[in-house]
Input
Amino acid sequence: MTIRVIIVDDQAMVRAGFAALLAAQTDIDVVGEAPDGRRGVEVARAALPDVVLMDVRMPELDGLAAAREILSPPPGVVRVPKVLMLTTFDVDDYVYEALRAGASGFLLKDAPPADLISAVRVVAAGEALLAPSVTRRLIADFAGRGPAPRKNGAALRLNGITPRETEVLELIARGLSNQEIAGRLVLAEQTVKTHIGRVLSKLGLRDRAQAVIFAYESGLVTPGDR
Output
């Protein structure tokens, strides 16, 4: 199955370079481009991509606002693409808000070509591009913001998962990889993946990125805890 991609970036050379790289893959088809967030939303609605590569900083409408519009479509729109944010900074101010808005992850613009290709495939498959190292940076960001206000609805939803699933969610939020979680809980890595799948399903979370945010907003994990 071919992955349909659009590229939204205000730099023409970046769009051209990414398009050439992705179009050379037999399983990826670049179906549109846009120079700003407003046009990006329009192209996304018309081209029906599977993945949107979205630059964070753009004129007209920035990437965060554009991602929100794409991921919260008007009634009648049934096909919602995955959004992969592009940034030139290792830790961008927008990363946290982009993930809260529903983006499936973020990628540095200067990442190796193989990483870009892999990222598109990972996101298209429904996974989050949120490596443990990125999770740890998010945690540091949470810590800098101070304790997050607890959301009662989120806290109540924790009652719907088992004690073991709660443990797994907590370790995800602390930045552990599946392998590290397996070692900590003395479980097979495949069992950890099964638990994660159940946590996401029961809590109505899209991916690992949203799981991290949920764990903090529900009060399950507090920045600075160990």
About this structure: Residues 189-203 form the longest helix (15 residues). The beta strands are 3-8, 28-34, 51-55, 82-87, 105-108.
